[in-house]
Design brief:
Blueprint lengths: L1 E7 L1 E3 L5 E9 L1 E12 L6 E7 L4 E3 L7 E6 L4 E6 L8 E11 L6 E4 L3 E5 L2
Parallel strand pairs: 2-11
Antiparallel strand pairs: 1-3, 3-8, 4-5, 4-9, 5-6, 7-8, 9-10, 9-11
């Protein structure tokens, strides 16, 4: 089994910064990409940021210019830094990864449990 363990999150004041990390653990052969999605109450889950194993990032429109994603392939870990946070950034942030477990011949999409981020004064 592959697990994604998120850390960071919590309460942040408007205009503040946020740092999240997500580590994949378990019997992993390879990870082709990792990233973050978020879901606010009553809204659909949306892409925050995504990075491939080669280091190519993709950002959601709502966070472009405010977010930076980076990864450490050796640690199977992805990091997200967000600045200039707004109340609209309040959501549960989920880690996501495309993983090939040991003994598997194909990739599957894994999700973390989610971490709450609340932007409020």
């Amino acid at each position: 089994q592959v697990q994604l363990v998120e850390s960071g999150g919590g309460l942040v004041h408007p205009g503040g910064s946020l740092a999240l990390s997500c580590a994949a653990s378990g019997r992993i052969l390879s990870i082709s990409a990792m990233g973050w999605y978020r879901q606010a109450p009553g809204k659909q889950r949306e892409l925050v940021a995504w990075i491939t194993a080669r280091g190519d990032p993709v950002y959601g429109d709502s966070v472009k210019g405010r977010a930076t994603i980076s990864g450490d392939n050796a640690k199977n870990t992805v990091y997200l830094q967000m600045n200039s946070l707004k109340p609209q950034d309040t959501a549960v942030y989920y880690c996501n990864a495309d993983v090939v477990p040991l003994g598997w011949s194909r990739e599957y999409n894994a999700w973390g449990q989610g971490t709450q981020v609340t932007v409020s004064s």
